[in-house]
Write a structure and sequence with these properties.
Shape: elongated
Number of domains: 1
CATH class: Alpha Beta
Structural class: alpha/beta
Distance between the termini: 48 Å
Strand content: 15-25%
Helix content: 25-40%
CATH superfamily: 2-enoyl-CoA Hydratase, Chain A, domain 1
Largest sheet: 8 strands, mixed
Number of helices: 9
Number of strands: 11
Length: 266
């Protein structure tokens, strides 16, 4: 996790590091949403509405190893494309409850969702949280709602650098890195972060923040300056404040939005 660019609420960084709450990226029918097993990725729910859950910590690929479990954005994208290609599916509803996660794969998925506008009706619901990377993705839908008690935002990115040098010295451990390449080991956790390394990390953060704000500006039809200065500036906003700031199209429950999509095809 050290020096990885993250788009996640800071209070959830521990969950990301340990994958305590891995994502559940499943195409589910409304009756099975968040409770049953996954339906086939391309299968549309009753009435032609394909429901896709974006729940938990976001990663690009499935998690493996000690903590295991979880699916990633690659699977979500495959399911999304399958729903687009399924003639029995007339609309797609993305059910979001996530504090965000890694930035890897987020830009690509959000662009695919945005490009699909007009092909089918695509809606997203913050039910009840769409933060950081999850907001980036959800805002790409043609319609974006938040539940009355929900929250959205946390538009921003950061790096968590861990300097363990003092801790290790106190334990009698002195680590030496033998490397080739001028910057190969800069930012390592065994010595204090050098000013030049910190400057480079900041440039990476700034680059992803620019991508994030430009994408939200495109998705919401506003200027990047409006996103940077008027959409919480990294804070989470409640439903009413988010609606007033233009971060969502409306306030509605998941079931309300599902009913609207079902009624629109009759």
């Amino acid at each position: 996790m050290s020096d990885e660019i993250l788009a996640i609420m800071p209070e959830h960084i521990g969950s990301y590091a340990g994958l305590i709450n891995p994502p559940e990226l499943l195409a589910l029918a409304p009756s099975a949403r968040r409770s049953g097993g996954p339906a086939p990725a391309a299968a549309a729910a009753a009435g032609g509405v394909a429901v896709m859950g974006l729940v938990g910590i976001i990663r690009q690929h499935p998690a493996t190893g000690l903590f295991g479990g979880g699916a990633g954005l690659t699977q979500f994208l495959q399911a999304f494309k399958a729903a687009l290609a399924d003639d029995s599916c007339t609309s797609i509803l993305i059910d979001v409850d996530s504090p965000g996660g890694s930035v890897y794969g987020v830009e690509e998925l959000a662009s695919e969702i945005y490009a699909a506008r007009g092909k089918k009706r695509i809606a997203a619901v913050a039910n009840s949280l769409a933060a950081s990377a999850a907001y980036w993705i959800a805002s790409a839908a043609g319609e974006f709602y938040v539940t009355p008690g929900g929250e959205v935002g946390s538009i921003g990115v950061y790096v968590a650098h861990m300097d363990r040098s003092k801790q290790l010295r106190k334990a009698g451990v002195d680590t030496k890195l033998v490397s080739a390449g001028k910057y190969k080991v800069e930012g390592n956790p065994y010595q204090p972060l050098a000013p030049e390394a910190r400057k480079f990390l900041q440039s990476r953060v700034d680059d992803y923040y620019s991508k994030f704000t430009r994408a939200v500006a495109r998705n919401r039809g506003v200027s990047a300056l409006t996103v940077r200065n008027g959409m919480g500036q990294g804070r989470i906003l409640g439903a009413d404040a988010a609606k007033a700031a233009g971060m969502v199209d409306g306030i509605a429950t998941f079931d309300d939005v599902a009913r609207r999509l079902l009624s629109s095809r009759r």
